[in-house]
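Quick one, probably user error.
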């Protein structure tokens, strides 16, 4: 081949490669198809056969192509960047613009699928009974028997699926667990708060060295006092015991002492010594923290006046405010996780013990109570808490990822993968929503495969196809 012929061949290859690249982009062809297109252009430029020939190459070397099929060519032998030799393309090699797997002639002649007609590749309402090209040179797309009946089903080539990032998952049966995150406040267990008082007038002779906020133990002395009424009841009880009639005759006076709240230790002292103690000592009724101290040395205390208030903080409550629209999903017994801002890294586990049967009129929230053990005393009253309630832990239902559902406002749609690149939109009815999962009440069964990525593109193409199918009247079809 002369030098002039070589340059002419390269020019033909460049022009053919550009035209084939544009045509392949319109046809969504692979790199191999582009190579075959360039080969055909070269064959035409050299005056060779344009019809497919034997796959076994023969004849003169036309040019050299990249060993990986990339669109890189050379008129002379050369090597790729990795050192591999370019492959020689002979004049007798088979060249074709169509991909073998998508060749309509093979499918039409095989008898497996019957071509009904050919439709416009740009979606225009124009059909043809025979293969043809549009004004841009693009081939009309064949419509096979069975495809025309389902205008919603679309077919996407493997290359296009890869480029758009189509991903699919199977619909499974799982329990929907949706966390409800609400604010809360740590409070004391109102059942574990005690008030220390005297049931009659008394003079406080001595108050123990105990202050507000201090932890005390059960039975620890709090205050020593003198009460005239207790002294009189004690003297009567001692006299009844000395009368020889025994405790049976002293039952009335003993009951009076108990009604006045006299400690058991003081009553036992009267029984053992026969003398009435001048003063009585009150002790702590429970272990806990002193919330309030009102007792002062030498003060005159009225009957029922609070001297001390003690709270057991081994168990506390967390009161959470749940919005009214979330209240329907919260149930008594739901697991709750509590985090405290002032205790980073600490997580407390509990469960919903009570939901208050009322809604706050101003905030439109309902209060619920979570009981937590507090053995180390880390949780303090009035701490701010972040509460996460695991709701919806019922039976297993059909669930799909949130990304699989396309919400148009008036309907919800999923894209089903029918295999072999075929996809079908389907209306569904959704139920409860959880962590990145949604319940499908109607429309999808367990085990069906759905698209979770690039499903908007497939849905748009399906809607376009359905619209074109509706515009194409029966008269325009062959």
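Nope, works fine. Designed sequence:
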């Amino acid at each position: 081949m002369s030098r002039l012929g070589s340059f002419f061949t390269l020019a033909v290859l460049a022009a053919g490669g550009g035209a084939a690249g544009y045509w392949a982009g319109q046809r969504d062809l692979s790199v191999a198809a582009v190579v075959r297109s360039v080969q055909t252009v070269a064959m035409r430029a050299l005056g060779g056969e344009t019809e497919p020939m034997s796959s076994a190459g023969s004849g003169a070397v036309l040019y050299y192509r990249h060993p990986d099929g990339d669109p890189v060519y050379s008129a002379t032998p050369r090597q790729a960047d990795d050192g591999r030799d370019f492959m020689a393309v002979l004049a007798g090699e088979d060249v074709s613009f169509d991909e073998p797997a998508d060749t309509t002639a093979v499918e039409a002649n095989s008898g497996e699928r019957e071509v009904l007609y050919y439709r416009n590749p740009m979606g225009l309402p124009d059909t043809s009974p025979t293969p043809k090209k549009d004004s841009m040179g693009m081939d009309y797309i064949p419509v096979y028997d069975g495809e025309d009946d389902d205008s919603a089903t679309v077919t996407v080539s493997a290359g296009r699926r890869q480029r758009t990032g189509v991903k699919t998952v199977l619909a499974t049966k799982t329990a929907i667990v949706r966390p409800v995150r609400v604010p809360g406040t740590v409070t004391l267990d109102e059942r574990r708060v005690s008030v220390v008082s005297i049931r009659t007038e008394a003079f406080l002779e001595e108050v123990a060295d105990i202050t507000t906020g201090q932890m005390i133990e059960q039975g620890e002395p709090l205050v020593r006092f003198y009460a005239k009424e207790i002294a009189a009841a004690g003297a009567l009880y001692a006299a009844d015991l000395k009368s020889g009639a025994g405790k049976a005759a002293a039952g009335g006076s003993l009951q009076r002492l108990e009604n006045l709240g006299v400690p058991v230790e003081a009553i036992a002292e009267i029984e053992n010594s026969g003398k009435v103690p001048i003063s009585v000592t009150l002790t702590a009724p429970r272990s806990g923290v002193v919330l309030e101290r009102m007792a002062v040395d030498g003060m005159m205390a009225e009957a029922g006046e609070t001297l001390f208030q003690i709270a057991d903080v081994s168990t506390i409550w967390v009161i959470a405010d749940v919005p009214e629209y979330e209240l329907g999903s919260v149930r008594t017994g739901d697991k709750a996780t509590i985090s405290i801002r002032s205790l980073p890294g600490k997580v407390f586990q509990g469960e919903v013990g009570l939901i208050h049967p009322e809604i706050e009129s101003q905030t439109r929230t309902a209060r619920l109570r979570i009981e937590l053990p507090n053995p180390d005393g880390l949780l303090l009253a009035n701490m701010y808490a972040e509460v996460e309630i695991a709701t919806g832990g019922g039976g297993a239902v059909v669930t799909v990822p949130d990304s699989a559902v396309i919400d148009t406002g008036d309907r919800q749609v999923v894209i089903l993968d029918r295999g072999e690149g075929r996809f079908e939109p389907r209306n569904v009815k959704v139920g409860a929503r959880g962590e990145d999962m949604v319940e499908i009440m109607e429309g999808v069964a367990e085990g069906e495969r759905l698209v979770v990525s690039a499903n908007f593109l497939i849905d748009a193409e399906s809607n376009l196809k359905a619209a074109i199918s509706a515009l194409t009247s029966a008269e325009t079809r062959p």
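Residues 1-35, 41-56, 94-111, 473-478 have pLDDT under 50 and may be disordered.
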